[in-house]
Amino acid sequence: MNSQIKKGILDLCVLALLEQGDSYGYDLAGSLARKVEVADGTVYPILRKLASEGVVSTYLQESQNGPPRKYYHLTDSGRRKLNSDREEWLKFCGEVNEILERGETGGKADE
């Protein structure tokens, strides 16, 4: 998939994953990579940006397998952003699908 398309939607994907529950960076990266082809290290800059925007917060939690892990939590502001962005994305996808489906069937676009 075109990297520019992916770049524009990865923030939303990370927020959606955090909606399912708090998580640490490595786990988020793995969850994302199972669905979308992303380069190693892509998630950490996104998490830093989202934290600086206040849509996610962080906390440390002890780990049985080494040092404490930094967990990310979706804030109320993040939940509002997720809902708004998800609505925009789904509307956009529907409009794009409509255009693409017309192309497949040979239909003409509305004039």
Distinct helical segment count: 4
Task: Please identify which CATH superfamily we are dealing with.
Answer: Winged helix-like DNA-binding domain superfamily/Winged helix DNA-binding domain
Total number of domains: 1
H and E order: HEHHEEH
The amount of helix comes to 55-70%
| CATH architecture call | Orthogonal Bundle
Q: Span between N and C termini? A: 30 Å
Oligomer: single chain
Instruction: Tell me the strand percentage band.
Output: 15-25%
How confident is the prediction overall: mean pLDDT?
Answer: 90
Description of the molecule:
With about 110 residues, the chain is an alpha+beta fold. A hairpin with a 2-residue loop joins strand 2 and strand 3. Helix 1 packs across helix 4. The chain is elongated and about 60 Å long. The model has no long low-confidence stretch (mean pLDDT about 90).
Short summary:
This protein has about 110 residues and is an alpha+beta fold. The chain has one domain: Winged helix-like DNA-binding domain superfamily/Winged helix DNA-binding domain (Arc Repressor Mutant, subunit A, Orthogonal Bundle), CATH 1.10.10.10. The chain is about 60% helix and about 15% strand.
